[in-house]
Amino acid sequence: GGIDLLDDTPVLDIKPYLPYADSIPVASGGYADAAPPPGPSVIFSPAAQLACQQLSDRRHCELEKLVTSLLRQDPRPAYRGDRQPTCYGMRLWDLNIRFRVTDDQIVVETVEPIDGNG
User: What is the spatial distance between Cα 60 and Cα 112, in angstroms, rounded to a whole number?
Assistant: First the structure.
């Protein structure tokens, strides 16, 4: 359910071969031969780090690791060309994550549950 298919028709999974991620080391890619460069470093304020530890204990498994991987992909709005150090917010599940971006790092300032009205 939830997908648009017809009975008895083939299903094709077409995607590029990425040598850095797929399993044949001698193959050539042509699409993306090298892994993308790592994103900026992500650091957590003491309050955000404590919140991640407390929330991980309850139900958000490895929250700090997940937030780090999401923020390294730079979720800031693309229309913001100036990229000045501004406080941004991101919703993840029932959490509000506030962060700042500088030239070479992302600082997670707060990780807070969103109330039921939110």
Answer: 12
Question: Which has more confidence, 79 or 86?
Answer: 86
> Could you tell me which of 107, 103, 104 has the C-alpha nearest to residue 84?
103
What token pair was written down for 54?
């407390």
> To the nearest 10°, the Cα dihedral for 20, 25, 27, 30?
20
C-beta of residue 101 within 8 angstroms of C-beta of residue 40: yes
12-39: pLDDT as tens digits: 777 776 766 766 666 666 666 677 777 7
**CA dist list (Å): 24 to 10, 17, 19, 27:** 26, 9, 7, 6
pLDDT at 42: 93
3-class secondary structure, 53: helix
Whether 60 contacts 53, CB under 8 Å: no
User: SS3 for 52?
Assistant: helix
CA atoms of 56 and 67, how far apart (whole Å): 12
